[in-house]
Amino acid sequence: MGVVKVYLCVYNWLLFAGWLQILVSAVKALQQSGPSGVYAAVEKPLQIWQTAALLEVFFPLVFSFLWFLVLRRIVYGIVRSPVMATLPQIGSRIYLTWGILFSFPQVQEHWLVTSLVLSWSITEVIRYSFFALKETFGYTPRFLLWLRYTTFFVMYPTGICSEAGLVFVTLPFMQLSDLYCLRMPNKLNFGFDYYYMSIVALLAYIPGSPGMYTHMIRQRKKALGSKPKAS
């Protein structure tokens, strides 16, 4: 087993275990204390395992110049997903994890956190178990393939609505805060307002979400296709 194969196996099994821990913890907290207790139960593992997903864009960004060299097949083997399709999704999740939930405790007990965490964790448990089995044994059960390319019909809208909803309910707290803002005048002669940046990010969901959704529908057709006709 080569280095790339070992890396993919370890990475996918670790992320599967991490997201399974998040899912189980979220369900237990929901049962015991309701939506208000979910974030406290998953905060640390959510931050760890969601941030670990940056590795999925790290390799293509760092080694992009190798695509036209002899190592092209190695780099392609490390990262199977196109970086331009993966980056927006991971970027939005990192933004929600650190830029919203970590930075503004006022929204940590909001019920949208529950739908967000459940949507993310269910999706990722399926996705990483799919790739972990594929990389380790060379195949995946048909039911897991079906789940991988079908559950997004529900999980994607609930996840997107939860993300956008949390950004929206956080805006009033951002407006009253100087967190991550750079006010003028300053030596750099440059200003930055996190509140307005977040509004732009929120508006980006409008054109971005349908595109990602239709992309997943196309991927489903390619992955599942139609059953071969009996001869």
From TrEMBL:
Locations listed in the record: Endoplasmic reticulum membrane; Membrane
Taxonomy, superkingdom: Eukaryota
Topology in membrane = Multi-pass membrane protein
Under catalytic activity, the entry for this protein gives: a very-long-chain (3R)-3-hydroxyacyl-CoA = a very-long-chain (2E)-enoyl-CoA + H2O
E.C. number(s) listed in UniProt: 4.2.1.134
Predominant place of localization: endoplasmic reticulum
Which Pfam families does this one have?
A: PTPLA
* Keywords from the named record: Endoplasmic reticulum, Fatty acid biosynthesis, Fatty acid metabolism, Lipid biosynthesis, Lipid metabolism, Lyase, Membrane, Transmembrane, Transmembrane helix
Residues in the signal sequence: none
Q: Which InterPro entries match?
A: Tyr_Pase-like_PTPLA (IPR007482)
Q: In which pathway does it act?
A: Lipid metabolism; fatty acid biosynthesis
Query: What residues form the membrane-spanning segments?
Result: 7-27, 47-71, 151-174, 194-213
| Record-stated family | Belongs to the very long-chain fatty acids dehydratase HACD family.
Q: What does this protein do?
A: Catalyzes the third of the four reactions of the long-chain fatty acids elongation cycle. This endoplasmic reticulum-bound enzymatic process, allows the addition of two carbons to the chain of long- and very long-chain fatty acids/VLCFAs per cycle. This enzyme catalyzes the dehydration of the 3-hydroxyacyl-CoA intermediate into trans-2,3-enoyl-CoA, within each cycle of fatty acid elongation. Thereby, it participates to the production of VLCFAs of different chain lengths that are involved in multiple biological processes as precursors of membrane lipids and lipid mediators.
Recorded protein name is Very-long-chain (3R)-3-hydroxyacyl-CoA dehydratase
What organism, scientifically named, is this protein from?
Sphagnum jensenii
